[in-house]
Amino acid sequence: MQNVNVEEDLRQLVKDARWAIWAFVILNAFVLFLFLADGLYNEFVFVLLFIQAFLVLFWLGPVFLYQVFIKKVRLKYAVYRALASYKEALAHFSW
Predict the structure, then answer these.
(1) Taking the alpha carbons of 67, 28, 94, 54 in that order, is the dihedral positive or negative?
(2) Cβ contact 17:84 at 8 Å
(3) Given CB 3.0 to 4.6 Å as the disulfide criterion, which of 15, 20, 59, 78 pairs with 86?
């Protein structure tokens, strides 16, 4: 019974990580489109780039490092965990 819960948690983690990757790709494609249309001086482009940089540097990085160095999990699982937390972080922003 315990094995089924672990497998289900892992499936959900991978699903959340894939969702986060697609959200990251779509958001950055949108930023690229705005950048090409108006340039870097568009306030919306600047804010989106700042949010993405903040999330990568101060959210994904520390979550990944915590998983690897403190919890001693494998790199693949740490990447999945960090990306799943990215999905949670995006839920906190009011778009």
Answers:
(1) positive
(2) yes
(3) 20
pLDDT at residue 94 tops 70 = no
The model's pLDDT over 7-66, given as tens digits with 9 standing for 90+, comes to 888 899 999 999 989 988 998 898 888 888 887 777 888 888 888 888 888 888 999 999
How many whole angstroms separate alpha carbon 30 and alpha carbon 39?
13
Whole-prediction pTM:
0.77
How many whole angstroms separate alpha carbon 14 and alpha carbon 34?
30
Q: Are 65 and 40 in contact (CB under 8 A)?
A: no
Domain ranges of the chain: 2-92
